[in-house]
Description:
The chain is α+β, with helices and mostly antiparallel strands and 117 residues long. The chain is built from 3 helices and 6 strands, in the order E-E-E-H-E-E-E-H-H. Mean pLDDT is 77; it is low at 91-95 and 98-117.
Amino acid sequence: xxxxxxxxxxxxxxxxxxxxxxxxxxxxxxxxxxxxxxxxxxxxxxxxxxxxxxxxxxxxxxxxxxxxxxxxxxxxxxxxxxxxxxxxxxxxxxxxxxxxxxxxxxxxxxxxxxxxx
Length: 117
């Protein structure tokens, strides 16, 4: 089983659902990327989770990457698969798209996605 880290998300403006992620495989310790972050449809994250892989979020803080919550598979009211954060008491009420580091990086993933993904 692999460990992946999401560094940014693309959110549909109407549904507020995550449609794409910028992510890469990280070392088990999580301190370095083994596969450089690349843009992918969110269903690839869902597939990785179904295989038993671990997917976490990472955020920039003072020039370094800081680990955030893990993500898990989620199904909305319409039956569409997607992802959501595994929240703890300190994260209560927050959603994946609400985290500052991921939202700030929307321009970054938009640029990566315009390159053909």
